[in-house]
Amino acid sequence: MKKNTLKRTFAALAVSAVAASMASMTAAAAFDNGCDKQDNKEVKFGSSSMTWQQPAKWKTDPIDPSTYTGSAKVYFDKVTLPYDKAAAMAKAGTAQTINLNVSGAANSVNAVGFHTFFDTRLTVVPGEYGDDITKGGALGAFTENVVKIADGQYNFVASAGGNKLRDGVLFSIDFKLPADVQPGDLYPIGLQFWTDGTTSDLFYNQEQNAAGRLQMAYIFTQGIENGYIAIENTTTTTTTTTTTTTSTSTTTTTTTSTSSTSTSSTTSDTDTDTDTTSTTSGKGTVTGSSAGTGVVTKGSTTTKSSKTTKSKTTTKGKAQDSPVTGVAGVGVAAAGLAIAVGTAFALRKKED
């Protein structure tokens, strides 16, 4: 029990020493902020004047980061906002959170140190406990320290008694957009490697062995990706489209000719916008309009034809073997012929 207590005490002292050392070394002077050019362009990690330098105290041959076979990665969020939303956020003072994330390095790191830079058109909104940078879940077991170097420049360090890094969020910063936010604006947020030759940014394991050095060399040369808040280059517009649909209806009339003996009674009594109805019970009937178009319907049927001239005519007689046709005018002529023949036959019989 006593041994474990001493171990935890030494670990706590080591954490404090790392944080104090990093803070004191980086609070002295501001650095070139490559994320504050305000030219609305993304800033790649490694594009600053200071790039990775292997610590001299390692006293080893230069390490080749390309031999790293792990998957460790550190990256900022990249957020794109519609202009209308960004303008509303700026007016209301609503903050946009940007996270620095880590993946592929769980249980392999006990100390981290980063120099963070961002576009000074952005304003930092302190977190729940008044901190400009808030530690994330990936550093739950770590003790952290945050130092503001200058506007748009911070140093963040954290360490733990053991390789207790987890995948997830390393830290978060809440930013308020400028009041004059414009479509097409882009506000870079990123890391820049820093060293004074003795102390440098860190991503290191507790053993400080070859595996830890190789992973650290890889992170600060190939494993970091900067982020941004970008505003879409267009505003939202509403377009109304009217669609007209035209329907075409095609009616096909089939005319059937048949011979039948029937008693027909045809009555038409219509005027404009009044239909003519002919109802007949029997083997068949002929119905039609004044144009003379006939249609045969079997059985008891009611057929309507529209728009005939107003007249009342009732004709009674016997039709025998009268032809039926659908050709215009022939229906009326055939009916008349049947009546004439019937009348002549009756007169002749009377004369006889």
Structural features, described:
By secondary structure, the protein is of the alpha+beta class. 20% of the residues lie in helices and 28% in strands. The chain has 4 helices and 21 strands. The strands form 6 sheets. Strands 2, 4, 7, 8, 10, 11 and 13 form a 7-stranded mixed sheet that branches. Strands 1, 3, 5, 6, 9 and 12 form a 6-stranded mixed sheet that branches. The C terminus is likely disordered.
Low-confidence stretches: 23-28, 249-352
Report the span from N to C terminus: 148 Å
Helix content: 10-25%
Which oligomeric form is depicted?
A: single chain
Query: What is the count of DSSP helices, taking H or I runs of 4+ residues?
Result: 4
- Strand-pairing-aware structural class: alpha+beta
Strand elements, count: 21
What is the CA-based Rg, rounded?
A: 48 Å
Strand content: 25-35%
> Largest beta sheet, briefly?
7 strands, mixed
Q: What's the order of the H and E elements?
A: HEEHEEEEEEEEEHEEEEEEEEEEH
Overall shape: globular
Mean of the pLDDT scores?
74
Set down the secondary structure blueprint.
Elements: H1 2-26, E1 73-76, E2 78-81, H2 83-92, E3 95-103, E4 111-118, E5 123-125, E6 134-135, E7 143-150, E8 153-159, E9 168-176, E10 186-192, E11 202-204, H3 210-222, E12 224-225, E13 227-231, E14 262-263, E15 266-267, E16 276-280, E17 285-288, E18 294-297, E19 301-305, E20 314-315, E21 318-319, H4 330-351
Parallel strand pairs: 1-12, 2-13
Antiparallel strand pairs: 1-3, 3-9, 4-8, 4-10, 4-11, 5-9, 6-9, 7-8, 10-13, 14-21, 15-20, 16-19, 17-18
